[in-house]
Amino acid sequence: MPSYTVTVATGSQWFAGTDDYVYLSLQGTAGCSERHLLDKPFYNDFERGAIDSYDVTVEEDLGEIQLIIIEKRKYWYQDDWYLRYITVKMPTGDYLEFPCYSWITDEKEIVLRDGRGESHKKPYFLQNILNS
Ligand SMILES: [Ca+2]
Ligand SMILES: [Ca+2]
Known about the structure:
The chain has 132 residues and is mainly β.
């Protein structure tokens, strides 16, 4: 089954992190994924300045990913989240970048689109991480 690696970058400003539930769906040219809860066991996800990666396995190849749908749901109290960007590593090894750079405040769905219109190079910030 195809697997996508989803990397989520939380902002580094005060209170940017969240303990809310974050669900992700991938929508591609060939289909849509199920809704996945992004959660690593025994780990505090989406803290300030964190870059967290999750493997999302899907039943069938989704083709080129066009949209990401993020849903934030309350865990205990309302906990705003500053999402910088999400990258998706495709089964082919290509990376797609979905910029957000905004606060997600309520319990709502947001839709992120591929920010570059070109998917065959690694984003420069990943090159920086790999080169450092
Ligand atoms: Ca917060
Ligand atoms: Ca957290």
